[in-house]
Structure formats: structure tokens, C-alpha cells
Specification:
The structure holds three protein chains of three kinds.
Chain A: E1 12-14, H1 19-29, E2 33-36, H2 42-47, E3 55-58, E4 68-71, E5 74-78, H3 83-88, H4 90-95, H5 97-104, H6 109-114, H7 117-122, H8 128-131, H9 172-178, E6 182-186, E7 192-196, H10 197-200, E8 219-225, E9 233-239, E10 250-258, E11 264-272, E12 279-280, H11 282-288, H12 295-305, H13 318-331
Parallel strand pairs in A: 1-3, 2-3
Antiparallel strand pairs in A: 4-5, 5-8, 6-7, 6-8, 9-10, 10-11, 11-12
Helix pairs in contact in A: 5-9, 11-12, 12-13
Chain B: H1 15-20, E1 35-41, E2 47-53, H2 55-58, E3 63-68, E4 92-98, H3 101-109, E5 112-117, H4 124-128, E6 141-142, E7 158-159, E8 183-187, H5 190-195, E9 199-207, E10 220-225, E11 228-232, H6 238-249, E12 256-259, H7 278-287, E13 291-293, H8 297-303, E14 309-318, E15 324-334, H9 343-355, E16 360-367, H10 382-400, H11 404-410, E17 418-419, E18 430-431, H12 437-448, H13 450-456, E19 460-461, E20 464-476, E21 483-488, E22 494-498, H14 507-518, E23 526-530, H15 548-575, E24 582-585, E25 588-591, E26 594-600, H16 601-611, H17 626-635, E27 640-645, E28 655-667, E29 672-683, H18 690-709, E30 715-716, E31 721-722, H19 727-730, E32 743-746, H20 764-781, H21 793-802
Parallel strand pairs in B: 1-13, 11-12, 15-16, 22-23, 29-32
Antiparallel strand pairs in B: 1-4, 2-5, 3-4, 6-7, 6-16, 8-16, 9-14, 10-11, 10-13, 14-15, 17-18, 19-20, 20-28, 21-22, 21-27, 24-25, 25-26, 28-29, 30-31
Helix pairs in contact in B: 9-10, 10-20, 11-12, 14-15, 18-20
Chain C: E1 4-8, E2 14-19, H1 22-43, H2 52-61, E3 68-70, H3 74-99, H4 106-129, H5 143-153, H6 168-191, H7 209-238, H8 243-251, E4 253-255, H9 256-262
Antiparallel strand pairs in C: 1-2, 3-4
Classes of the chains: A alpha+beta, B alpha+beta, C mainly alpha.
Chain lengths: 340, 814, 278
């Protein structure tokens, strides 16, 4: 039973035009169904012949899942809106530049043209042992190949590891958490529920084979951005090896409202690339409230942020990296004056 | 007289096809009844095939044939397209031909291969430890080349080498163990050099392996017709791949029709083609139908070749003024599962050349590991030498208070500089044909505004620190002795046969510019014929080792001079006088002083056909290669044939040099390095094609820059399996990782030992970019922060955070 | 229904990963089925106990005995209940996620496993040094009791031996649970190397795939066995006619009458003495 990684096996392709039809298909095929958004995560799995769905349900033909619309004092972004569309949207640019920065940091222009916001937040981890098809915990086995004395785990987790040490790869996820976005989920039975972005993601302790709360048959239909954080002082940074087409080593996203006296009135802060789910750092948010957005506050907060971090053999750098990014989110980055 | 073509930009004739997608690469071809093949790869890094049961696969509708190693001829123990003893994970074991790829893949999933795991090793030092595993049943290292062996891939015996526990005593401290070497040479008074040194530094550096990953994978399509093999493959060298394919299949080269008009890059991984390309040839014979083999990116990361990684230790003595007094270099090379490769030898010679130590010792072991096979990758050896030695030079300059440009300038070769051991027949050392590095350093320092940039290096603004670096990348840049064929036909046009591969360098066309210049032929009347051995190509150098421009401009200069001489002879024969009385110009050969008295090229071509003999190719020179003779025989009678071997003298070994200047900005809060500016200045002889040359300097530098910053190959040591088996894991450079205004320049000083003055350029910029960026990072954050490449954010940040170097000191493939 | 779950390692070799979780459901079903069957049987049971008159006579004869007889020391009871808590924690953390209730269970599981291990070690030492080690054990000497008890179960009045301190069923149960618990504890301790704990450097490569496979299967088999055994145990503990035993595990003593009614005073000799504290 030899293993071969190409080409994509055959499956039934469905291109429904409504969420109801899509969910009817998901019900019909149950565990044999695969939801396809932009395809950038899916096609890897399919072409590698690791995931072998019976039916692929392509959401790209469902108009109600696309586009950015006003909703109350905020925005509602259809889950199938491409990252490029998000980046180019005037209101996003004007009021939610944090999301713009995060979406623009994802992958490459071609991938952003194809990749969707819903897909970006719902994508699977990129742990290279798991993606190679090795039978690890996340794949239903009982071993983590990335956390052994010999593993090459520079890109793995320092926080929240529970058997599995994979990290969440999404660039937009921490930005959405910082913006207090709400994820609109249509359950298999047609019922709709709304969960906060930070609760959308699950760690391996809770469910080692999933990245999000989506259960079979569930669809993420839209992402709502409340007005509460529009136009706040934003900070996004993604540290990666290459400036394009690379996942974050660590990323940070924050929204901050600073009062007249220079004190932080409120702040939301999230990091990614350090755990299997993007982490909202509530303790840091609480700590900085009422304090000035300066180096001293940043230093205290950043040390709090990394409390409990447990590095692996090759990823100890993520501890200072996360600490420094949290610092920057609070006190900013000094510009340089060199001419070129 | 037409304006000289050499030194001028032009639009190559293949450009439109390339940018419009009309160009057809190997996998774009189709043939009636064509089957597709998929490969079954070894999941284990070393195993023996005990049993293969393909019955379930063969029973599937649409499955036409299964090919195993048993169907292939033995190649003297060398690497074959399929194997029964895989020595690296991902090595092909069998291939299935079916009506489509989906069927072939499903067939492979129904094949049972019973593999017996064998001992394996992925880190060369692990193999050298007492009791360490051997990568091959026959041994763990390549010994010194057999007598008479020459060149980087010279045949060598497989031996078993284990070092003692004492040898490893300091390994944990990051010092490369230096047990018994398998190869060594020395010259000068090494002990005296160190004794007289004001400063002696001893440092270890780990140079990474990287997969070549050309844009086009090594796909191939093949079919048989009337006993001839027609094969569409991807190669850097059309003329020299035909013989390889013939050898791999076990047939006569003249029955191989190799078609490769376009090659999507090779970087050394397709120098003489790819051994895997014969899989469709064998399957086609077995299934009696054309067979297409499309290699996936994942497969490419296993079978697509990779750079040899080296862990080197350099002990260098410096006088107070920065002059090197002695260099003791030890290299442990990881040759992968096959080989032998001679990068370690090229590295030793390059070190001797560009740093000109008066005394030097080179020692090396060439270890085999169960990792994907290596081949020469753009600057094989010299780039690694840059990596091993540049950090030491940088550290010495800092400690001695000498400027980084100056320390390299004072130690650089000049003119016919000697290098390497005294290995000549008379005990003399080799020397280069020419070197103008000092001029290149001076020009580069001025253009790069070195002094101003140096002044701000080491300064910190916010979390950012700037640093500047410079390095000299050398590489052998030219061979000699190849052939050319060209014809002036009755239509008055010049047809130049080019056996060069079209791997993106333009040398495939550039060589005809030389011929056109010699014959004063306008460029629009020149046709270049390339990319198909059925089109009668001359014996041509391999397009590896930066040799093509040098070798083939010489050959085509010789061929053009032969053409010119024949024009003169025909004119003299028809119009009287001696050939020397005739000159050429305006597409005519005419009597000097009487321009009206002469023949047009078209007339001369007709006369050549009438005259026959040597004029139209009926008689050819004795000294040309049989392949050239065979091609000439097919072109006979088409016009006036110029045909010659490059017999021009050459005093010295041809080397080219590129000096790289880099400025980086390191963010000490993230560890991330950003390349701010880069300049490459070439000492590469006469410039033939400026636009292409500068693109080569920039592009080659980019490869080195990527090696300095993030490109790598990673292997899981437990299972011995490549983890970076995807393009994005390998992290080749992206356009946003280099400054928009990256600059390049060339001295354009002719090399005195070749009639055209041109040397090759492909490789030297790699080491220049690698060394310059490594040096610039060291300049910014301190030269002790890293001793391995790539210098990624994790290395810089962790070391700065802890106040000392923290990375795993010696481990390979991390 | 599968017994074992197989996977393929990165070298595409078959590896044993663990038992099939079908076995968990089977054990759960077996446990429940047993108590349903047994409860049904008990309704119609003709179990022959000592006649009340017989017991009255014995009680009169043994008036020297204190009215309350110590059956489980405080230490033994503490052990029992700590172990029970650990066992319930282990079973719930192991099987609730499999049953679909998702939560972060691993740390709870191995912590409870360590508590169980500690209490077992304590119990072995305690039982060996301070208790009558052999009183809980089963051996060939118990055959007459087995025969007598079976006959009594069938409604016969037979003279043979009555239970000593621990009834035979009790002791047989103990034997099985000793095997299961030792299996689960031994394999579980080894498996802690596979996860992150403060005690070891995590090393899933410590053993070969085959050894790990065997360890996981042992752990799984012992674990699902415990599901059934614990159900049976709890069932008996709550049965009305056994309640006096359960109560003794809480309060530590039984009455003189219970002692004489259910036990063979020759096989569990109790000396006259002060009344134990309640």
C-alpha cells in the first residue's frame, strides 16, 4: 500500500449557490464531505492525497457569503470575501486598518486574490510533520513528531501545547480578535450562532483534531466587526523569514484607545504563531488599562505576556520575540532616520 | 562595418516565446497514445527491496506497464533512475505507466513493496563518530580520487572512516572535530606563518544544503521510432546530455534525439540532464507508447539535487596590517547519498585563490549521508568557502582595526595569481589567467559609498542596527577545446549551430554574436539553431561551472575565423591573389583596396557548395569531436561551412570574480535582517551581453543572499526524511527580500588568455552575495552571534538575548 | 467491531496505535448488562443465608465480642476512597473525550494516575506490613469455600466454610482489579514519557513502535476492563444486601451480628476488645 502524494484523487464537486444547499450537501455526505473556500489549504491536502473526501462543496458560488457590507456601526464581511477584496475595501482601509495590515501580510498577491477571509481564519495548521501525512495526534494517532528530543520545531508552539505543539498559521485571526470580531456560524440544522473571534479557535487540549469550533455541517458565513474599535490605535506585525509567501514565526495585533491624558483607556491584544490557537492576552489588556502607552508599561506587560511559555528545542527565540512584539504593540516602534 | 555586437544589449530570439507562454518545455509536449507515469518513492532513508507485488496494480484497467530497477542497466554502481536499495527517502523504486496520472497513482497505491530497513545517517558527523552508522553498505565516505581522476566529480573509492572519541572532545563546544582526513594538500610554511602572525583565529562554520528547485522540475517525455529514442527532457546542456542519456539507456548516442529548446532553470542540477529522465524512455519501450513523466515539486525536492552542505573549520593567521600569513582549512562535506562530488576541493582552491595565503593546508572528508543526492549548485564549493572563511576575515579585521574592504583588497589575487598546491607536473602551482579584483573592490567601494555607509554601521536607531559587508566571490569561469559549426548559406544568412542549453543565461545565443562580429554580419541575418540534437549541433561544453561564455565564444570565434578564412580562400580562388589580400565587410569578401572586387556572402556560399571539400563540410578538421563530425555530415552541402575546434592557447586557469557589497538592517527586537542595499561588481572579462550579465550578477547574488538569510533544506533525523519537501519550506528568495534598487556593474576588462576576452559569470556572484550579507549581519550585531547559515531571526534573537551564541553548533540540516 | 487500531508510521510500516475504542463501548455495555442480569437474578435468588435463629445463637455465644467490629481501619478506608476518586477521575478523563465530551483531559488524567499509583504503592506496603496480606488473596485453599458458597447460592444448606474477612467474590474481584490496575498503572507511567510532564524530557522515541504499541494496547485493555469492573463494583456496593459492607467502608465497622451472620469466625478471628471509634 505504497504512499504517493500526487495527483488529486477524484471526488464529486458541488458548487451550490445557497448556504442551505451547501448544508444539505454536507448533511448528505457527512464525514465524506469537504468544504472548499479559496482552496489554498484544501488543495494541499487533496493534492497530497492525505484527505480523501467523497464530495467537495465549493462555497465560491454562494453570493450571500461574499462582500463587505455595513452592519450597525460596524461591518459585516462575508466569509468568502477574498483577502484582496478585504484589503481594497475603503471602510476597512479607513476604520479597520488593522485587518488590512494583517490581510495584506498573508502569503502573496496571487494567494490573496484567491484566499478568503473565512478560509484564512479557518485554515489548518502548517506543522510540517502533520502536513507530511505523518500519523500524529492531530491526524488521529497518538504521537507528536514535533516535540521529541530530535524534532526540528523552530516554528512550533511555546504556549498552550497539549500533546500537539502545532501553531495556528492565520494572519488575520489575531487582528480579528483584537477588533473583537464576531464569527457568524450557521449550524447544520440551519440555526445561527455568533461566537467571539477569540472563542472561535480551539486548542489541542480541547480538541486535538480541530482548529476551530466548527463542527461537521457548520459553516462560517460572516465575520462582523463592531464599531467599538474602529479607528483605534492599531498595531500589527508579522515576523517571518521571507517578506512574502511565508507564515508568521510570531505575529501580534492590537487595538488601543488612548485617553486625553495619554493613558490607555482600553486595549485588545492578540498574538499568533505561538500556540495552536491565536491567543488573546487578556491579562495584558487588564494590566495596561489606565497606564501610559510607554516603555515602562510595555516592559511589564510584555513580561506578563510570556508567563508560562515553554520552549521546545529550536523555538526558544519565540519567547523574546513574542515579548518584544507585545512591547511594540503597546509602545510602538521608533522610526529610523537613515536616508536609504 | 556594422557596429560591434559584443557589449551591446539585444533582444534574444526566444524572448517572445518565453514571455507569451508559447515556449514549450518538456512537459508541454504531447504525442498520440501518450501514457503517463507516476513514481513510487522510498519512504525510508536506506532500505533493501525484498519483494514487490504489483499484480493488483497491473490488473487495473488502464495500467500498461510497471518498471523496476531490474529493467535498468547497471551503471557501474552509480546512481540509477530506479533502485532496489534506496539510499535516501524519496528515491524512486518503481514507475507505473497508465493512461492517465490518476490511474497511475491509484495503481501505485495498490503496489506492495516490502522494504527491509537498513542503517542510515543524516548528519555527516554522526557517521564519523566511533560506531556511527554508514550511509551505504559499502562505506560512509568517498576517498581521494582514483589516479587519473580529474574534475569535481572524479571517480573515487567508497571507504569507511571513523574518528576517535578524542577527536570529538570539543564538538559540544562547537568546534569541528578534525580527525583523520581522507584528502589533503599543503604548500608554504604553515607553522612559520602562524608563528609569525599577530592574530590567529580558529572558527567553525556550518554551511547549509539547499535544494536547487529550478522553476521547471525534471519532467521528461519519451517515445521510440525506428529504433531511435526521441526524448523531451530538461537539461542545461543539450549537446552533452545526449551521451548521458545514451549511457543511462545503454544505446548509441547517435540514436538519441534529445529535444530541449527551453529549460526552466537548473542551477547545476541539470548539468548533463537528469538520470530520472530515462524512466519514460524505458517505460515507453515496455508499453510501446509515448510516456510522459511530470515530476512534482515534492518529487523535485527529493530527486532534484541539492547543494553539498559543509561544516568547515578555518584557522587563519594575520599580520598586524591584516595580511594573511597562514590558512589551515578543514572541511567535512556532506555529499548526500550519491556522488562523489568535489565541492570541497573547489572550496579549498577558491580559498587559496581569493585570500592568497602564503602558506595553506587543506584537509577534507567527503561523507555520504542518507539525504537527497547532491550535485553542483551554482558556485559549488567557492560559495561554501566564502561562508566558512568570511566570518573569520571579518572578525580579524574588526580585531585588527582594518577596514573590511582593505583587508580583502590586500589579500586579493592580482594578475596571474597562483593558487592551490604545487601539483603541476614540474611542481609548480596553478595560476589564473587574470584577476582584477582590486579594481573591482575600488570601483565597488566608490559606487557603494562604502565609507559613508561604514560610518553609520553599528549605530542603533530604535531597535535597528545597520551593518555593511563585502566579499569576493570567485569561481572557475571557462573551459577550452570545444567545437563550433556555422554555415553561410546561399540566402546570405549566417546559421550558427548552438549546442548550449537554453537555461536562461542567453549564452545559447550570445555565442553567435561573436561569430557575427568576426564576420561583420548584421544581427538580423543571423540564425541560431539550438535545442534539438536532431538539428546537428557541435560538441559543446556543459553549461555548468560558468564556462559557457568563455568556452563557446572561443569556439565560435575559431569557427568564425575558419569561415572568414574560407571566404578569403574562395575569393582568392575566383578573383585571384592570395587569401590574405581579401578582407570582409558589408556581407562581402573583397580585395583589400578594391572593394568592388569581391563576392557577396551569398555568392561565396554557392561557390562553396560547388567547390565542396572543406568549403561545404565534405571535409572536416581531424581534431574535432565525433559528435561535431556527425553533425557536419548532416549539414554538408548547405553552404559555406565554418567548422573548428577551439585550439587557442591559454596560459592559466580561467576564474571570474564578483565583489559583493551589502548593507543590512537588523532589528534586534525581532532578530530579523533586512537587506537595505546591494551592489555586485564583476571582474568577468569582456562584457558580451550587458543586460544579461548584470542580471546574472544580481540573480546569482540573490541566491547567495537567500542562503545568508533563510534558504535551507531540513531533514528529520529520526526518520531520515526531508521535511522541507515543498517549495515554500525551502524558502527561495522573493522579490520583496531584496532592495528595489539592487545594483550591478562590471569592469569590462578583457581576459588576456581568450580571443574574445570574455569569462563566465554565472557562479561568482553567489559567494559574493552570501559572504557580503553574512559579513554585514556580523558587522551589525557582532561576528560571534552566529556560526551557521542561514542567519534567521531565531539565531540572532536568541544569541543577543543570551549574550552568547546559542544555536546548535554543528548539526546539519536544521 | 475491531479489537486493535493500526496506523502507519512515517516509513509506511504498520504500527499498533491503541485498542479499538469499540472495546470501551463493549466493556461499558458488559458492565451494564451484568448488573441488569445480576439484579434480575437476585430478585428470584434462593440464596441461602444463616437462619436468624442460628445467628441469634451465635451472638448469644459470643457476647464477649464488642457490638462493633472493626472491618476497615481508617488508613485502609482513606486508601480505598482516594483510590476510588483517582479511578473515577482516570476513567472519566479517559473516556469522556472518546464519548464526545471534549475538554483538556491529559493533565488531569496523568495527575490522577500518579495519585492512583501512589495509593497502590501505599496499599501494597500497608497491606504487607500492617494487614493480613493473605486475607484478600485467593488460592487453592479456597476451593471448599467456593463449593459451599455455590451450593448456598443454589439454595442448599451446607456446612462448609463461610467467608473469612473478605467473601470469596470480593477476593476474586480484588484479584482481577489488581491485575487491571497494575497493568494500567505500569503502562500509564511509561506513557507519561510521551506527553509533557514536569518529570521527564518528553521522548516518544524512547521505545520502538512495537513496544509503544504493546504499551498502548495494555493500557487500553486494562482501562476498558476497569470500566466494566468499576461498574460491577459500584453495583454491588449499592445493592441492599451488600450495603452493610459498603457502610463498613465508610464508617469502618460492622455490627457483631453482621460479623457472625456473614463471616466464619474461625477464618476471621476477632478478639474481644474495646469498642472502636465510629
Amino acid at each position: 500500500m505504497a504512499v504517493i502524494r500526487d495527483p488529486m484523487p477524484a471526488f464529486e464537486l458541488f458548487q451550490p449557490t445557497s448556504v442551505e444547499d451547501a448544508q444539505a450537501l454536507l448533511r448528505r455526505y457527512g464525514a465524506g464531505a469537504w468544504v472548499l473556500a479559496g482552496g489554498l489549504d484544501s488543495f494541499d491536502w487533496l493534492k497530497d492525497r492525505i484527505k480523501r473526501p467523497e464530495a467537495v462543496v465549493d462555497l465560491s458560488g454562494i453570493p450571500e457569503l461574499r462582500g463587505v457590507r455595513a452592519r450597525g456601526d460596524g461591518l459585516e464581511i462575508g466569509a468568502m470575501t477574498t483577502l484582496t477584496e478585504v484589503v481594497r475595501h475603503g471602510v476597512v482601509r479607513e476604520r479597520y486598518a488593522l485587518l488590512l495590515d494583517a490581510a495584506e501580510a498573508a502569503a502573496s498577491p496571487q494567494i490573496r486574490n484567491q484566499g478568503t477571509l473565512g478560509g484564512n481564519v479557518s485554515q489548518d495548521t502548517r506543522c510540517w510533520y502533520y502536513r507530511a501525512g505523518w500519523p500524529c495526534y492531530r491526524a488521529g494517532g497518538n504521537i507528536c513528531y514535533a516535540d521529541t528530543p530530535e524534532s526540528i520545531n523552530r516554528e512550533h508552539a511555546i504556549l498552550g501545547a497539549d500533546r500537539c505543539v502545532a501553531v495556528n498559521p492565520s494572519d488575520t485571526a489575531p487582528a480579528l480578535i483584537a477588533l473583537d470580531a464576531q464569527m457568524v456560524i450557521r449550524a447544520a440544522n440551519g440555526g445561527e450562532r455568533v461566537v467571539a473571534a477569540e472563542d472561535y479557535f480551539v486548542g489541542p487540549g480541547k480538541d486535538i483534531t480541530r482548529m476551530t469550533v466548527l463542527q461537521p455541517g457548520d459553516l462560517l458565513t460572516a465575520i462582523r466587526l463592531p464599531g467599538a474599535w474602529a479607528g483605534a490605535r492599531f498595531y500589527f506585525e508579522k515576523v517571518r523569514d521571507r517578506q512574502v509567501w511565508d507564515f508568521a514565526l510570531v505575529s501580534v495585533a492590537s487595538a488601543m484607545v488612548v485617553g486625553a491624558g495619554g493613558a490607555i483607556e482600553r486595549m485588545r491584544l492578540a498574538v499568533n504563531g505561538v500556540a495552536a490557537r491565536p491567543l488573546r492576552l487578556q491579562a495584558v489588556e487588564d494590566l495596561v488599562r489606565g497606564r501610559p502607552a510607554n516603555e515602562a508599561t510595555a516592559a511589564v506587560a510584555a513580561n506578563l505576556a510570556i508567563a508560562g511559555a515553554q520552549p521546545l528545542r529550536f523555538n526558544a527565540y519565540k519567547v523574546p520575540l513574542m515579548r518584544n512584539l507585545v512591547k511594540r504593540a503597546i509602545r510602538g516602534v521608533e522610526a529610523t532616520t537613515w536616508a536609504s | 562595418m556594422a557596429e560591434r555586437l559584443i557589449g551591446r544589449n539585444y533582444t534574444p530570439p526566444d524572448l517572445v516565446a518565453k514571455v507569451t507562454g508559447r515556449a514549450r518545455y518538456a512537459e508541454d509536449f504531447r504525442a498520440d497514445g501518450m501514457l503517463f507515469t507516476k513514481l513510487l518513492l522510498s519512504p525510508m532513508p536506506h532500505a533493501r527491496v525484498r519483494r514487490i507485488d504489483a499484480s493488483a496494480a497491473l490488473a487495473m484497467p488502464g495500467v500498461k506497464a510497471v518498471l523496476t530497477a531490474d529493467d535498468l542497466p547497471d551503471l557501474g554502481g552509480g546512481e540509477r533512475a530506479l533502485t532496489n536499495e534506496p539510499v535516501y527517502a524519496g528515491e524512486p523504486i518503481l514507475a507505473v505507466a497508465a493512461v492517465d496520472e490518476l490511474t497511475a497513482a491509484e495503481a501505485i497505491e495498490r503496489i506492495e513493496v516490502d522494504l527491509e530497513p537498513l542503517p542510515f545517517v543524516t548528519d555527516p558527523l554522526d557517521s564519523l563518530r566511533p560506531g556511527g552508522p554508514n550511509a551505504r553498505l559499502e562505506g560512509n565516505a568517498w576517498g581521494a580520487p582514483l589516479p587519473g581522476g580529474q574534475g569535481p566529480g572524479a571517480p573515487a573509492p567508497l571507504v569507511t572512516l571513523k574518528w576517535t572519541p578524542q577527536d570529538f572532545a570539543e564538538a559540544d563546544m562547537g568546534r569541528l572535530p578534525m580527525g583523520k582526513p581522507l584528502e589533503e594538500w599543503a604548500y608554504g610554511d604553515l607553522d612559520g606563518g602562524f608563528a609569525g602572525a599577530a592574530l590567529v583565529l580558529d572558527e567553525t562554520f556550518v554551511v547549509q544544503s539547499t535544494c536547487h528547485h529550478p522553476m521547471e522540475t525534471r519532467s521528461a517525455m519519451a517515445y521510440w521510432q525506428n529504433g531511435k529514442l526521441f526524448i523531451h527532457a530538461s537539461t542545461q546542456s543539450v549537446a552533452q546530455t545526449r551521451g548521458n542519456i545514451a549511457r543511462w539507456v545503454g544505446m548509441s548516442p547517435s540514436d538519441v534525439m534529445l529535444i530541449c529548446e527551453y529549460t526552466g532553470g537548473g542551477f547545476g542540477s541539470k548539468g548533463g540532464g537528469a538520470v530520472s529522465s530515462v524512466i519514460p524512455a524505458f517505460l515507453s519501450r515496455k508499453a510501446n507508447a509515448p510516456v510522459m513523466m511530470r515530476i512534482t515539486r515534492e518529487e523535485e525536492s527529493y530527486i532534484g539535487r541539492a547543494r553539498t552542505n559543509m561544516t568547515g573549520r578555518a584557522r587563519i593567521g594575520f599580520a598586524k596590517d591584516g595580511r594573511i600569513t597562514a590558512l589551515d582549512l578543514y572541511i567535512v562535506q556532506d555529499c548526500g547519498a550519491y556522488g562523489p562530488l568535489g565541492d570541497h576541493r573547489s572550496a579549498g582552491l577558491a580559498a587559496s585563490l581569493i585570500y592568497q595565503p602564503p602558506a595553506m593546508r587543506w584537509r577534507a572528508v567527503n561523507v555520504i549521508t542518507n539525504t537527497p543526492p547532491r550535485s553542483q549548485q551554482r558556485s559549488p564549493g567557492p560559495m561554501q568557502a566564502n561562508g566558512i572563511i568570511e566570518p573569520v576575515i571579518t572578525k580579524a579585521a574588526r580585531q585588527l582595526g582594518v577596514d573590511q574592504v582593505q583587508i580583502r583588497r590586500m589579500n586579493s589575487p592580482e594578475g596571474k595569481a597562483a593558487f592551490g598546491p604545487a601539483a603541476g607536473p614540474g611542481g609548480q602551482r596553478a595560476h589564473v589567467t587574470s584577476a582584477f579584483i582590486k579594481q573591482a573592490l575600488d570601483r565597488g567601494a566608490a559606487q557603494f559609498d562604502w565609507e559613508a555607509r561604514k560610518a553609520r554601521a553599528g549605530q542603533r536607531q530604535g531597535s535597528k542596527i545597520r551593518g555593511v559587508g563585502v566579499a569576493v566571490g570567485p569561481h572557475g569561469a571557462g573551459s577550452i577545446g570545444f567545437d563550433s559549426i556555422m554555415t553561410i548559406r546561399p540566402d546570405g544568412r549566417l546559421y550558427v549551430q548552438s549546442g548550449v542549453g537554453n537555461l536562461g543565461t542567453h549564452s545559447v545565443i550570445d555565442l553567435a554574436r561573436v561569430a557575427a562580429d568576426v564576420l561583420d554580419m548584421p544581427w538580423d541575418k543571423v540564425e541560431v539553431i539550438w535545442g534539438d540534437t536532431g538539428k546537428h549541433l557541435p560538441w559543446t561544453c556543459m553549461s555548468v561551472g560558468s564556462q559557457t561564455t568563455h568556452a563557446m565564444t572561443r569556439a565560435n570565434h575559431a569557427g568564425a575565423m575558419d569561415t572568414r578564412r574560407k571566404l578569403q580562400e574562395i575569393a582568392a580562388r575566383d578573383l585571384g591573389g592570395s587569401p590574405d589580400d581579401y578582407d570582409i565587410g558589408g556581407e562581402r569578401v573583397y580585395r583589400r583596396g578594391a572593394p568592388g572586387r569581391g563576392l557577396s556572402y551569398a555568392q561565396a556560399a554557392r561557390r562553396a557548395i560547388e567547390l565542396g571539400g572543406k568549403y561545404d563540410g565534405h571535409a572536416v578538421p581531424e581534431d574535432i569531436n565525433p559528435m561535431t563530425k556527425e553533425s557536419a555530415a548532416s549539414l554538408v552541402g548547405l553552404g559555406l561551412m565554418g567548422i573548428a575546434k577551439d585550439n587557442y592557447p591559454r596560459d592559466g586557469v580561467t576564474y571570474s570574480f564578483v565583489v559583493g557589497f551589502a548593507e543590512v538592517e537588523v532589528d534586534i527586537e525581532t532578530g530579523k535582517t533586512t537587506l537595505i542595499d546591494y551592489l555586485g561588481v564583476g571582474d568577468v572579462g569582456t562584457v558580451i551581453n550587458p543586460r544579461s550579465l548584470l542580471a546574472q550578477i544580481k540573480g546569482g547574488s540573490c541566491l547567495g543572499i537567500a542562503h545568508a538569510l533563510f534558504q535551507k533544506a531540513v531533514v528529520d533525523p529520526r526518520y531520515g526524511v526531508t521535511l522541507g519537501d515543498r517549495f515554500h519550506y525551502s524558502k527561495p528568495l522573493s522579490i520583496l527580500d531584496v532592495p528595489a534598487s539592487m545594483k550591478a556593474d562590471a569592469l569590462d576588462i578583457a581576459d588576456p588568455e581568450t580571443p574574445v576576452g570574455a569569462r563566465g559569470v554565472g557562479e561568482p556572484p553567489v559567494g559574493a552575495g552570501y559572504g557580503a550579507v553574512l559579513n554585514a549581519i556580523a558587522d551589525a550585531v557582532g561576528e560571534d552571534v552566529f556560526r551557521r547559515a542561514p542567519v534567521t531571526a531565531d539565531i540572532v534573537l536568541t544569541s543577543l538575548e543570551n549574550g552568547r551564541r546559542m544555536h546548535d553548533p554543528l548539526r546539519a540540516h536544521v | 467491531m475491531g479489537i486493535l487500531t493500526w496506523g502507519r508510521n512515517p516509513w509506511d510500516q504498520p504500527i499498533l496505535t491503541h485498542i479499538s475504542w469499540d472495546l470501551f463501548w463493549a466493556s461499558l455495555f458488559a458492565g451494564v448488562a451484568f448488573f441488569v442480569a445480576h439484579a434480575g437474578y437476585m430478585v428470584f435468588s434462593t440464596h441461602r443465608k444463616r437462619h436468624a435463629s442460628e445467628t441469634d445463637a451465635m451472638e448469644a455465644a459470643r457476647a464477649d465480642l464488642p457490638p462493633r467490629i472493626v472491618r476497615h481501619s481508617g488508613v485502609a478506608r482513606a486508601f480505598h476512597w482516594v483510590m476510588a476518586a483517582a479511578m473515577f477521575t482516570l476513567l472519566l478523563t479517559a473516556f469522556l473525550p472518546i464519548a464526545g465530551v471534549k475538554f483538556a483531559w491529559v493533565t488531569w488524567h496523568w495527575t490522577a494516575g500518579l495519585v492512583l499509583t501512589g495509593s497502590i504503592v501505599f496499599h501494597i506496603v500497608h497491606a504487607t506490613v500492617w494487614l493480613d496480606f493473605w486475607s484478600i488473596w485467593v488460592g487453592p485453599a479456597d476451593l471448599p469455600e467456593l463449593r459451599a458458597e455455590v451450593l448456598r447460592e443454589l439454595g442448599h444448606e451446607v456446612p462448609g466454610p463461610r467467608p473469612g474477612k473478605y467473601p470469596l467474590g470480593n477476593r476474586l474481584y480484588h484479584l482481577v482489579i489488581v491485575l487491571a490496575a497494575l497493568g494500567v498503572v505500569a503502562s500509564g507511567l511509561v506513557m507519561m514519557v510521551r506527553v509533557r510532564t514536569p518529570f521527564f524530557t518528553r521522548n516518544p522515541y524512547l521505545f520502538s513502535d512495537a513496544t509503544w504499541g504493546g504499551t498502548y494496547v495494555l493500557h487500553g485493555l486494562a482501562g476498558v476492563a476497569l470500566v466494566g469492573l468499576v461498574i460491577a463494583h459500584v453495583y454491588f456496593a449499592v445493592r441492599p444486601e451488600k450495603w452493610w459492607i459498603t457502610k463498613s467502608m465508610i464508617v469502618g465497622w460492622i455490627t457483631r451480628r453482621q460479623y457472625l451472620e456473614h463471616h466464619d469466625p474461625d477464618r476471621w478471628a476477632v478478639n474481644a476488645g474495646p469498642e472502636p471509634r465510629a
